[in-house]
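Quick note —
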Amino acid sequence: MAGEHAHKGHRHGHGEQRSGVAVGVLTCSDRGARGERADVGGPTVHNLVLDRIPGAKVTQYKVVPDDREQISSTLIAWADDERLDLILTTGGTGLAPSDVTPEATHAVIDRAVPAFSMAMLFESLRVTPYAMLTRAAAGVRGKTLIINLPGNPKAIQENLDAIIEVLPHAVQIVRGEDTHAEGGGGGHKDHADHAGHGGGHREHHAKHDDHAAAAHGHEQHGGGHEEHEPAADRGGIARNVGGPPC
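Predicted structure written out below.
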């Protein structure tokens, strides 16, 4: 379990402010690791991160097979050695015997953050009842937030839509930054203004309803998405041009 792994300290201490979000994208796929199928899940995550998270930079990207040890060791290395702020995995979250990403994640995290998984599940259930087959995990190792995403590009976007607004603020908290200090909220001042989930959430719910209305227009969970406009030159992975589900 997580307690069996020693952590190396992060360069940034408690209360220290740091700009940017260092992100790792880990694709878990036997066929992808063998080169039998192009990875479409990883580039989809990469593009959405750059487009939707201010100051984010994908500094690590890797494709590994559906192997618990390889997934866990990569998560440990990226959290402890590379000191990433956020790791997003894609693939291996279902019920197939080879789907072991959640187990590999639970083995290395110190604390689970189930609300991320719940939020993604609720969003996906608005589109398809098959979303209940997911076992995605989320948690914290040291000062790194780790979240499992599905492998299907369409499902990736739906899941990230549910949580991406919160991720920058979550990263700040995990890093130990004082998010309530003047200028330390990183654009998340509303968090301090609406104790008890008050009026500041009305706009979020309106946007959420708009997304749900659009999502219900999809007949299948495995379809593609329109491409985003190219992001700034902040990473080297080619933008996703669609493909089969991972």
